[in-house]
Amino acid sequence: MFLEVKELSVSYGAVDALENVSLHINEGEIVALLGANGAGKSSMLDAISRIVPAKSGRIIFNGADITKEKPENVVRKGIAHCPEGRKIFFDLTVLENLQLGAYTVKDPDAVLVNLEKIFTYFPVLKDRRKQKGGTLSGGEQQMLAVGRSLMSSPKLLLLDEPSLGLAPKLIDQIFEIIRKINFLEKVTVFLIEQNANEALLHADRAYVLENGRISIISDNAEELLKNPHIIRAYLGG
Ligand SMILES: Nc1ncnc2c1ncn2[C@@H]1O[C@H](COP(=O)(O)OP(=O)(O)OP(=O)(O)O)[C@@H](O)[C@H]1O
Ligand SMILES: [Mg+2]
Description:
CATH class: Alpha Beta
Largest sheet: 6 strands, mixed
Distance between the termini: 35 Å
Helix content: 25-40%
CATH superfamily: P-loop containing nucleotide triphosphate hydrolases
Oligomer: single chain
CATH topology: Rossmann fold
CATH architecture: 3-Layer(aba) Sandwich
Number of domains: 1
Bound molecules: adenosine-5'-triphosphate, magnesium ion
């Protein structure tokens, strides 16, 4: 298995965000993690990229136990995290923001190759490369955040709500690019979404988190779109 999360628990003081959650991701998949506000979705990604510690449980990536690994070593091993709310640097240019995504890459030529590749996926970032991050539109900022996370040539990309706050046309565009990156660059994608409709259209499989526990596991993401519970809870039906 490519990524295996075994009985993971995450707490913030007295708040239990995840309780004994197990899931896995196979190489090459796009897997969605759905759930309402506060369900524990971001905590899952934060635990995988080691921004927050696991209280118990294990995280295995590509055969290596990364449960206690340093965050920068997790990046070196091939996991990139595009966090919730974009978190780009407003005072740095687009180019500088992208270069920061490559802080684990030692070879300057590899950085240039990656940069050109990202500019082909996101031409708007090339046009705006000298502009300060804070002056980009919301959609452009989201593209920058995704582009930056690709600068380390990840094998696994963790995306925390890439569609948040974007107009429908831009949401489609972002998901198209995510699919292309998955297919052409062979990047496995673990995707958090509140926009269940969009996520399930593009994902191979899906998990649903409810109050820190997995409530649904689906091998066919599209079928979940017909699930009455999902429709009630996440599709406003
Ligand atoms: N740093 C923190 N300190 C204390 N509690 C936290 C912290 N981060 C998250 N929590 C709590 O943990 C729970 C899970 O939060 P998490 O951010 O993982 O949810 P989420 O599913 O990503 O929600 P959203 O869809 O709103 O982003 C929530 O109850 C939240 O209040
Ligand atoms: Mg979140």
